Amino acid sequence: MENQLDLLFRQALQSDLPNLVKMLADDQLGSKREDLSQPPNARYLSIYKIITEDQNNELIVAEINHEIVGMLQITFIPYLTHIGSWRCLIEGVRIHKLHRGKGLGAKLFNWAIGRAKEKGCSIVQLTSDKQRPDAIKFYQKVGFIASHEGLKLKI
Protein backbone atom coordinates (compact mmCIF):
# COMPACT_ATOMS: atom_id res chain seq x y z
CA MET A 1 0.00 0.00 0.00
CA GLU A 2 1.14 3.53 -0.76
CA ASN A 3 2.78 5.56 1.97
CA GLN A 4 0.24 8.01 3.39
CA LEU A 5 2.87 10.74 3.57
CA ASP A 6 3.23 10.68 -0.20
CA LEU A 7 -0.47 11.42 -0.84
CA LEU A 8 -0.93 15.01 -1.99
CA PHE A 9 -4.13 16.91 -2.87
CA ARG A 10 -3.80 19.88 -5.20
CA GLN A 11 -5.58 21.94 -7.84
CA ALA A 12 -5.50 20.26 -11.23
CA LEU A 13 -3.18 21.76 -13.82
CA GLN A 14 -3.99 22.13 -17.50
CA SER A 15 -1.27 19.55 -18.21
CA ASP A 16 -3.26 17.04 -16.08
CA LEU A 17 -6.24 17.08 -18.46
CA PRO A 18 -5.28 14.01 -20.57
CA ASN A 19 -4.92 11.89 -17.41
CA LEU A 20 -8.14 13.21 -15.93
CA VAL A 21 -10.12 12.49 -19.09
CA LYS A 22 -8.69 8.94 -19.14
CA MET A 23 -9.91 8.38 -15.60
CA LEU A 24 -13.35 9.80 -16.42
CA ALA A 25 -13.59 7.46 -19.42
CA ASP A 26 -12.39 4.36 -17.57
CA ASP A 27 -15.70 2.77 -16.70
CA GLN A 28 -18.83 1.52 -18.43
CA LEU A 29 -20.62 4.87 -18.33
CA GLY A 30 -17.66 7.16 -18.92
CA SER A 31 -16.44 5.19 -21.90
CA LYS A 32 -19.64 6.16 -23.72
CA ARG A 33 -19.51 9.88 -23.00
CA GLU A 34 -15.85 10.97 -22.90
CA ASP A 35 -13.55 11.73 -25.84
CA LEU A 36 -10.07 10.18 -25.62
CA SER A 37 -8.75 11.76 -28.82
CA GLN A 38 -5.32 13.38 -28.73
CA PRO A 39 -4.73 16.20 -28.42
CA PRO A 40 -7.64 16.47 -25.97
CA ASN A 41 -10.92 17.82 -27.27
CA ALA A 42 -10.88 21.63 -27.01
CA ARG A 43 -14.08 21.55 -24.96
CA TYR A 44 -12.16 20.00 -22.04
CA LEU A 45 -9.70 22.90 -22.08
CA SER A 46 -12.48 25.47 -22.35
CA ILE A 47 -14.34 24.04 -19.34
CA TYR A 48 -11.09 23.58 -17.39
CA LYS A 49 -10.44 27.31 -17.77
CA ILE A 50 -13.95 28.20 -16.63
CA ILE A 51 -13.65 25.92 -13.59
CA THR A 52 -10.26 27.24 -12.55
CA GLU A 53 -11.26 30.89 -12.99
CA ASP A 54 -14.39 30.47 -10.84
CA GLN A 55 -13.76 31.05 -7.13
CA ASN A 56 -16.59 28.63 -6.29
CA ASN A 57 -15.15 25.69 -8.23
CA GLU A 58 -12.11 23.54 -7.58
CA LEU A 59 -10.85 20.67 -9.71
CA ILE A 60 -8.75 18.56 -7.34
CA VAL A 61 -6.31 15.76 -8.02
CA ALA A 62 -4.82 13.29 -5.59
CA GLU A 63 -1.31 12.22 -6.42
CA ILE A 64 1.34 9.89 -5.10
CA ASN A 65 4.93 10.47 -6.15
CA HIS A 66 3.78 12.79 -8.97
CA GLU A 67 1.31 10.20 -10.33
CA ILE A 68 -2.37 11.18 -10.41
CA VAL A 69 -4.33 8.52 -8.55
CA GLY A 70 -7.66 10.30 -8.04
CA MET A 71 -9.76 13.34 -8.80
CA LEU A 72 -12.96 15.18 -7.98
CA GLN A 73 -14.60 18.51 -8.60
CA ILE A 74 -15.97 20.63 -5.79
CA THR A 75 -18.52 23.37 -6.37
CA PHE A 76 -19.46 25.73 -3.55
CA ILE A 77 -23.07 26.87 -3.87
CA PRO A 78 -24.73 29.69 -1.89
CA TYR A 79 -28.31 28.90 -0.82
CA LEU A 80 -31.04 30.90 0.84
CA THR A 81 -32.24 27.77 2.63
CA HIS A 82 -30.90 26.76 6.04
CA ILE A 83 -30.95 30.43 7.07
CA GLY A 84 -28.64 31.32 4.21
CA SER A 85 -25.86 28.79 3.86
CA TRP A 86 -23.21 27.32 1.63
CA ARG A 87 -23.30 23.80 0.22
CA CYS A 88 -20.51 21.79 -1.27
CA LEU A 89 -21.33 19.68 -4.32
CA ILE A 90 -18.86 16.90 -5.13
CA GLU A 91 -18.87 15.48 -8.66
CA GLY A 92 -16.57 13.71 -11.10
CA VAL A 93 -15.07 11.45 -8.46
CA ARG A 94 -12.56 8.90 -9.69
CA ILE A 95 -9.79 6.76 -8.26
CA HIS A 96 -7.43 5.30 -10.86
CA LYS A 97 -8.28 1.63 -11.41
CA LEU A 98 -4.81 0.51 -10.30
CA HIS A 99 -5.24 2.25 -6.94
CA ARG A 100 -8.78 1.25 -5.94
CA GLY A 101 -9.39 -0.65 -2.72
CA LYS A 102 -6.44 0.96 -0.91
CA GLY A 103 -8.32 3.57 1.10
CA LEU A 104 -7.49 6.46 -1.22
CA GLY A 105 -11.14 7.27 -1.90
CA ALA A 106 -11.82 7.71 1.80
CA LYS A 107 -8.77 9.96 2.14
CA LEU A 108 -9.91 12.02 -0.86
CA PHE A 109 -13.37 12.45 0.66
CA ASN A 110 -11.99 13.31 4.09
CA TRP A 111 -9.90 16.01 2.43
CA ALA A 112 -12.89 17.31 0.41
CA ILE A 113 -15.16 17.41 3.47
CA GLY A 114 -12.45 19.29 5.35
CA ARG A 115 -12.22 21.73 2.45
CA ALA A 116 -16.00 22.26 2.59
CA LYS A 117 -15.74 23.03 6.30
CA GLU A 118 -12.94 25.53 5.60
CA LYS A 119 -15.24 27.31 3.14
CA GLY A 120 -18.07 27.46 5.70
CA CYS A 121 -20.35 24.87 4.12
CA SER A 122 -23.07 23.29 6.23
CA ILE A 123 -23.93 20.48 3.78
CA VAL A 124 -21.90 18.31 1.43
CA GLN A 125 -23.91 16.66 -1.31
CA LEU A 126 -23.33 14.52 -4.36
CA THR A 127 -25.15 12.45 -6.91
CA SER A 128 -24.21 9.08 -8.29
CA ASP A 129 -25.62 7.21 -11.23
CA LYS A 130 -27.77 4.29 -10.09
CA GLN A 131 -25.73 2.12 -12.46
CA ARG A 132 -22.77 2.53 -10.08
CA PRO A 133 -23.88 0.51 -7.02
CA ASP A 134 -20.30 0.11 -5.74
CA ALA A 135 -19.83 3.88 -5.77
CA ILE A 136 -23.09 4.37 -3.90
CA LYS A 137 -22.01 1.82 -1.26
CA PHE A 138 -18.70 3.66 -0.91
CA TYR A 139 -20.43 7.03 -0.43
CA GLN A 140 -22.63 5.51 2.25
CA LYS A 141 -19.57 4.01 3.93
CA VAL A 142 -17.95 7.46 4.21
CA GLY A 143 -21.11 8.90 5.78
CA PHE A 144 -23.47 10.05 3.03
CA ILE A 145 -27.14 9.11 3.35
CA ALA A 146 -29.74 8.82 0.61
CA SER A 147 -31.99 11.48 2.15
CA HIS A 148 -33.25 12.98 -1.13
CA GLU A 149 -34.32 11.74 -4.53
CA GLY A 150 -32.14 13.20 -7.28
CA LEU A 151 -33.53 13.91 -10.73
CA LYS A 152 -31.75 15.02 -13.90
CA LEU A 153 -32.88 16.24 -17.29
CA LYS A 154 -30.50 16.04 -20.24
CA ILE A 155 -30.99 18.92 -22.65
Question: Can you tell me about this structure?
Answer:
The chain has 155 residues and is an alpha+beta fold. The protein has one domain (4-141): Aminopeptidase (3-Layer(aba) Sandwich). Helices cover 32% and strands 28% of the residues. A five-stranded mixed β-sheet has the order 1-2-3-4-5, with helices on both faces. Strand 2 (57-64) and strand 3 (67-79) form a beta hairpin. The longest helix is centred in the C-terminal third of the chain and has 15 residues, at 104-118. The chain is globular, with a radius of gyration of 16 Å. The model has no long low-confidence stretch (mean pLDDT 92).
CATH evolutionary superfamily = Gcn5-related N-acetyltransferase (GNAT)
State the CATH class.
Answer: Alpha Beta
* CATH architecture designation: 3-Layer(aba) Sandwich
Query: Order of strands across the biggest sheet?
Result: 1-2-3-4-5
Q: Which regions are unreliable across 5 or more consecutive residues at pLDDT < 50?
A: none
Helix fraction? 25-40%
Strand content: 25-35%
Order of helices and strands: EHHHEEEHEH
| Biggest beta sheet attributes | 5 strands, mixed
**Cα shape:** globular
Could you name the CATH topology?
Aminopeptidase
Q: Supply the number of structural domains.
A: 1
Distance linking N and C termini: 43 Å
Identify the quaternary structure here. Answer: single chain
Q: Output mean pLDDT.
A: 92
What structural class is derived from the secondary structure elements?
alpha+beta
- Radius of gyration, whole Å: 16 Å
Number of helices: 5
Instruction: Kindly state the number of beta strands.
Output: 5
